[in-house]
C-alpha cells in the first residue's frame, strides 16, 4: 500500500513542479525561428493573382490548356474579349500541368440569356483532379442556381453527387462569380489503398460553401464514389452536353501548396 | 454446405445491390435545401446573412474587456476604429461558436519599432478569461520585419506558423477571412473535437484547416479548458509602437 502511494505522490509533485516551472519559465522556449514562411506579394484585390501564382488563363490564350478528348491537341474553346467560353462540341479541356495540393481562383459567368432548367441550365464544372478521360475526377459543380432548383447535391458549389453546399450564393446570370478553392489531394499507399482522403474548401462569391469537406472518392454519375490511386493530375473544365447557352470563364490562377 | 449456401446467397444480394445502382436519380437528393444568400458585391462586402460587427459608424457591438459599461472605447475616425492602448482589449457583446469572419486592419504608415513591438495586435477567435486570453490570430507588421515564425502575422500565436507571409506595406488596408470551428467539450469537460481554423490573408491561404492544440499561454504549451460560445476580442498590445486600425468587420454564423 505504502509503496503505491509514494510514487503517485512523487509523480504529482513532479507535475506541479514542472507546471510551476512552465509558468515562471522563459517565453522564448515556445518561440521558433524556422522554417521561415515564404514572402508572397498579395494581389491588389483578393481576385488578383499573388506573386507566386501560376496564371492558367489571363484572357489572352489557352497556352496552359489542352483537349481532353484528343490528348495533346489544343484546347478548342473560344477566347474573345479577355474571356474564355465553353465550346460544347470540343468537349472538356484540362491544364497541361499537373497539380497536387493548391489554392485555385477562377471566375465564371452564366450568360444573361441563359435558358433551360434543372441541370440543363448553365451546367459546367471544375474537376479538381482530372483522373482520366471524359468526366473522370472530383467535380465541383457549376450551374445557374439563381431561381433554378435541382437536386441539392448537384447544385452550384456541391461536390457533385456527394456533398451539399452550406449555402446557395449564386449571382444573377450575366454577373461574374468567383470560386476560391483549397484542394488537398488524396494520398495512397504503395499497395494502392487509400492513405488519406481528399479535402476541399470552397468559397463562392465570398461565401463559404465547403469547409474542409472530406471526399468519399471520385465523382460518378451513377452509383457510389470510389478512390483509385493517382498522383498529380490536371485541372479540368467541363463542356456539359445540355442544350443551354455555354458559360464563360476568366482570371484563372493557382498557388501550389 | 451451409457456409456455401450463405456465400451464394450473399453474392446474389451483392449482385442485386450493384444492379440496383443503375439509375442516376438514386444518388440525387432534394433536402435539406441550402439557404439562399445574396453575396456581397465583392469579396470584402458582407453577404446578406452577415452580422455586421463594425461598419465604421459606431462601436455598439463592442465593449472594453476591463469595463463593459465604458462609453469611451477605442477611437473612431474615417470609418475605422483605432486601438486605444490605455483602454485595453475590445471584445464583442455577442458570443459565437462557428463562423466565417471578415476583418480588415491597417498598420499606420509611420509605424516604428521592430520584432513583436511593431504594430502588434491580434484577433482572439474565441476570447477566454484565462491564460493569454484565448485563441489568437496574430496581427503584426511583418513587412520587412522579422520575428519568431510562430508569432508572425497569420500565425495562430505561438502555435501554428503561417503557410506564407502575405503582408502588405504599412499604410495599406489588409484583410483576413477566417473560418473558425470552435472546440467541443462533453458534459464532463472532456474535449470532443479540437478547434480548427482556416485563414485567408489578403487572398493568400495562410492556415488550411489547422487543428489547434488548445489556447496558447505566453509561457508554456497550449492546452484545452472547457468553454462554450465566446466573444471575439481585438488586442490592445502593450508595446510602444503606434496603434493600428480596424474596419469592415462582419461574420456569418455557420
Tell me about this structure.
The complex is a heterodimer of chains A (257) and B (254). Chain A has one helix and 17 strands. Chain A has 257 residues and is mainly β. Chain A has a single domain, classed as Sandwich (Jelly Rolls). In chain A, strands 2, 4, 5, 7, 11, 14, 15 and 17 form an eight-stranded antiparallel beta sheet that branches. A five-stranded antiparallel beta sheet of chain A has the order 3-6-16-8-9, with no helix packed on it. Chain B is mainly beta. Chain B has one domain (29-253): Exo-inulinase, domain 1 (Jelly Rolls, Sandwich), CATH 2.60.120.560. Chain B is built from one helix and 17 strands. In chain B, a hairpin with a 2-residue loop joins strand 14 (196-201) and strand 15. Chain B is globular, with a radius of gyration of 23 Å. Strand 10 (167-168) of chain A pairs parallel with strand 1 of chain B, so a sheet runs across the interface.
Task: Jot down its keywords.
heterodimer; A: mainly beta; Jelly Rolls; 5-stranded antiparallel beta sheet; 17 strands; disordered N terminus; B: mainly beta; 8-stranded antiparallel beta sheet; 1 helix; 31% strand
Please tell me the CATH architecture of chain A by its name.
Sandwich
Going by helix content, strand content and strand pairing, the class of chain B is mainly beta
Uncertain regions of chain B: pLDDT < 50 for 5+ in a row?
none
In oligomeric terms, what are we looking at?
heterodimer
Q: Major beta sheet of chain A, specifics?
A: 8 strands, antiparallel
Overall form of chain B: globular
Which protein chains make the most extensive interface, counting residues with beta carbons within 8 Å of the other chain's beta carbons?
Answer: A-B, 64 and 67 residues
CATH topology of chain A: Jelly Rolls
Helix fraction bin of chain B: under 10%
How many distinct beta strands of chain A?
A: 17
